[in-house]
Amino acid sequence: EKDLVEYRIPAPEFSMIASIRPDGVYLQSEGAANGPEDKEKWTDLSKNISSEGTLIAAEIDLNGIKNLMAGKSANVQHGVCFSNLRMLSAALEMHAMDKEMALETLDQKQLKAERYLADELVCPNEGKYSLNKEGEVVCSTHGTIKNPVKIESVISKANIPEQYRPFETLRLKVSMSQAEAALKLNDKNLVEQWVAIGKQQLLAIRNMAQNQMGQLPEAERQKGLKMLDAVKINQEDLWLKVTVEGLDEKTILSGITGFAGAVSAIALPNFQHARAQARARACQANRRVLSAATEMYEMDTGKTCSKLEIETLVAGKYLKTAPECPDGGTYSLVREDNGFKIECSHHKQN
Question: pLDDT confidence of 288, banded at 50, 70, 90?
Answer without folding.
Answer: confident
